[in-house]
């Protein structure tokens, strides 16, 4: 090599891929290894997660027993109230339960298979865009070894099916960009319509990226591009709107209440609780759920454990649990987006690689901005939504660096990607320095050596002696080192048991001690599947439509799973839903449709008493306590009515009221 080119030259015939060439043997073997490896890793011992999130597991159980419950995503098979999300995820898991019987495996195996499908779709999208199956394999592999992907595609939250559908929409858009295909763009609209029915507006956050990319890149006239986008919009509206229309036309008296809404309508849930209210931090209004008796004060750190999701800001995606779940390749992906745009700035408007970078890069940026500015309800695992975007954008950047690895630009770009990836992995591993302390140093050392070799190759005196094969080895070794941290953390995530509403990634951590955490565990015990065996047996022996009623959907869900009986979730997920009203509840009791009313009981530590205040807990016949214990309750009118008319029996940490007894 006698010279190093700095500026690329573009020929639309050679630089813009037009479909994939026939696969070579190593490419076929690589794809098989990727998909089989993903399937084995994600399916292996998947039942270690048990029921996962009991909230959605109960709805899956209900859907496996009742077609109406399956259709609406009801929390119980007698259709009192739904979960607070649309039902696409429940359709998949509930139908599996209908076919194979409800179990941990029948519920979670479809989730793992969705991971294989998402990896294949991302591979296919990136491979078609670049004309390189190797780049597609890299994108698919990066997705598979992302910790949040390893976590949530073995779990039963609706995020998995939503991200699969978003990835399908991106794949279809790439296919549409190749030849300005209205058909593929319409299919993308259908995919996003069902993504909306998986998790509402979050499923549509990829929409602007897909639309902008098609409007700019598609090889046809502007008029045709606009018509194609309009057709895709119609497809999206039809594929999602039919369900909205169904909830409007179906008589409200014969369907479950749509949880999270204030008026039992789907669009109120879309625009309110799961929409702008969530974005603005106003969707968890029921602060009275954990209102302590007079004279007691909850420690601030425990309050955070009961519902704080971390503050918003530009660093949210890089810190705390979110950093471990998603950010391993995030800085490098942002850098890769800039590399592709800079490298292909002279390419024609219809350049497919730049178009793919717009699809995935804008997806990453738009969703990232939404997550960093979101004021409330931000669980770390929500960032699964940018997993495919990070993986694809990073792979596209590596592809550009690889394509130009004999040039100054390519070698500097590759060095920057390697150092950024490994450097950030070092920072993340340093935050958990007691776990595999040697790993971060090995990965950083290898990456630095590869970076120095690539940077040295950018100088003419060295480049003349540096063969292409050597450069290739440096890039491959550097990229593998950069992926080491994410891969290790994903591998540590897979064998761990994950249950509850906020699963986390990485190696297992010991439970925190202290009175505050003991109370937190007591309040959330039902959410994690801990139920009193004697209470469960009481529920199993009931003959009424609903065996019991209890505050909040998550506690009701745990009781349903333990007893396999329908339980009324008073107030829904947050205790704020206006069902049942007190007259409705009185009617349920008088018509013998429910047997028990249950209330959790928690012993408050003396350390929580406020100085100079007596810390008096009400007498046992009051709704907030029994036998000197605090009862966290959000629906005081029902609790007070039950306490005034029935006598409780205390079983473990539960006050049990027999509603079939004669009222006092």
Short description, anyone?
By secondary structure, the protein is mainly alpha-helical. Helices cover 57% and strands 5% of the residues.
The 3D shape can be described as globular
Beta-strand percentage range: under 5%
Largest sheet: 5 strands, mixed
Quaternary state, please?
A: single chain
Number of helices, counting only DSSP H or I runs of 4 residues or more: 27
Q: Roughly how many Å apart are the termini?
A: 96 Å
Class from secondary-structure proportions: mainly alpha
Radius of gyration: 27 Å
Numbering strands along the chain, what is their spatial order in the largest sheet? 2-1-3-7-6
Instruction: Please give the number of β-strands.
Output: 7
Question: Which runs of at least 5 residues are low in confidence (pLDDT < 50)?
Answer: 1-9, 11-15, 304-309, 623-627
The amount of helix comes to 55-70%
Average pLDDT across residues?
A: 89
């Amino acid at each position: 090599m006698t010279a190093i080119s700095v500026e690329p030259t573009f020929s639309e015939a050679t630089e813009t891929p037009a479909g994939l060439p026939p696969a070579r043997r190593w490419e076929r073997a690589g794809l098989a290894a990727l998909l089989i490896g993903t399937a084995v890793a994600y399916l292996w011992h998947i039942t270690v997660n048990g029921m996962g999130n009991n909230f959605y597991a109960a709805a899956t159980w209900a859907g496996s027993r009742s077609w109406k419950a399956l259709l609406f995503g009801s929390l119980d098979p007698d259709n009192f109230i739904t979960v607070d999300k649309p039902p696409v995820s429940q359709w998949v898991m509930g139908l599996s339960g209908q076919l194979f019987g409800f179990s941990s495996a029948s519920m979670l195996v479809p989730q793992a298979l969705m991971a294989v499908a998402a990896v294949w779709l991302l591979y296919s999208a990136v491979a078609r865009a670049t004309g390189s199956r190797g780049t597609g394999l890299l994108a698919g592999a990066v997705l598979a070894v992302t910790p949040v992907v390893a976590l949530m595609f073995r779990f039963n939250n609706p995020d998995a099916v939503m991200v699969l559908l978003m990835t399908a929409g991106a794949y279809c858009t790439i296919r549409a960009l190749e030849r300005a295909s209205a058909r593929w763009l319409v299919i993308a609209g259908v995919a996003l319509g069902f993504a909306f029915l998986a998790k509402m507006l979050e499923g549509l956050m990829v929409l602007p990226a897909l639309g902008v990319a098609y409007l700019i890149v598609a090889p046809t006239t502007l008029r045709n591009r606009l018509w194609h986008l309009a057709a895709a919009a119609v497809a999206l509206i039809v594929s999602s709107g039919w369900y909205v229309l169904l909830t409007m036309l179906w008589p409200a008296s014969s369907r479950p209440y749509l949880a999270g809404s204030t008026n039992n309508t789907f669009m109120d849930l879309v625009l309110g609780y799961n929409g702008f209210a969530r974005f603005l931090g106003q969707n968890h209004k029921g602060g009275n759920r954990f209102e302590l008796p007079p004279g007691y004060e909850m420690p601030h750190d425990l309050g955070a454990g009961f519902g704080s999701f971390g503050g918003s800001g530009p660093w949210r995606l890089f810190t705390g649990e979110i950093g471990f779940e998603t950010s391993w390749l995030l800085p490098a992906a942002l850098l890769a987006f800039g590399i592709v745009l800079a490298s292909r700035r002279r390419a024609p408007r219809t350049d497919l690689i730049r178009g793919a970078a717009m699809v995935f890069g804008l997806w990453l940026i738009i969703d990232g901005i939404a997550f960093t500015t979101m004021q409330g309800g931000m669980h770390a695992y929500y960032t699964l939504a940018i997993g495919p975007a990070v993986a694809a954008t990073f792979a596209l950047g590596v592809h550009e660096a690889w394509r130009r690895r004999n040039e100054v630009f390519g070698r500097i770009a590759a060095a920057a990607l390697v150092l950024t990836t490994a450097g950030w992995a070092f920072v993340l591993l340093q935050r958990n320095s007691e776990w595999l302390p040697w790993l971060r140093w090995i990965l950083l050392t290898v990456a630095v050596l590869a970076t120095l070799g690539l940077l040295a190759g950018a100088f003419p005196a060295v480049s003349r002696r540096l063969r292409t094969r050597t450069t290739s080895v440096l890039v491959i070794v550097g990229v593998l080192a950069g992926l080491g941290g994410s891969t290790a953390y994903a591998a540590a995530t897979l064998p761990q048991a994950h249950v509850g509403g906020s699963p986390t990634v990485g190696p297992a951590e010991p439970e925190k001690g202290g009175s505050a955490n003991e109370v937190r565990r007591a309040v959330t015990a039902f959410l994690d599947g801990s139920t009193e065996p004697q209470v469960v047996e009481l529920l199993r022996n009931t003959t009424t439509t609903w065996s019991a009623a209890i505050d909040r959907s998550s506690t009701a869900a745990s009781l349903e799973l333990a007893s396999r009986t329908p339980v009324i979730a008073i107030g829904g997920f947050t205790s704020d839903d206006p069902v049942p009203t007190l007259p409705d509840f009185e009617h349920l009791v008088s018509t013998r449709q429910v047997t028990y009313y249950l209330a959790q009981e928690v012993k408050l530590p003396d350390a929580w008493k406020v100085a100079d205040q007596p810390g008096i807990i009400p007498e046992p016949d009051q709704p907030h306590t029994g036998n000197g214990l605090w009862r966290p309750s959000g629906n005081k009118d029902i609790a007070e009515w039950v306490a005034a008319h029935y006598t409780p029996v205390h079983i473990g940490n539960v006050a049990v009221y027999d509603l079939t007894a004669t009222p006092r």
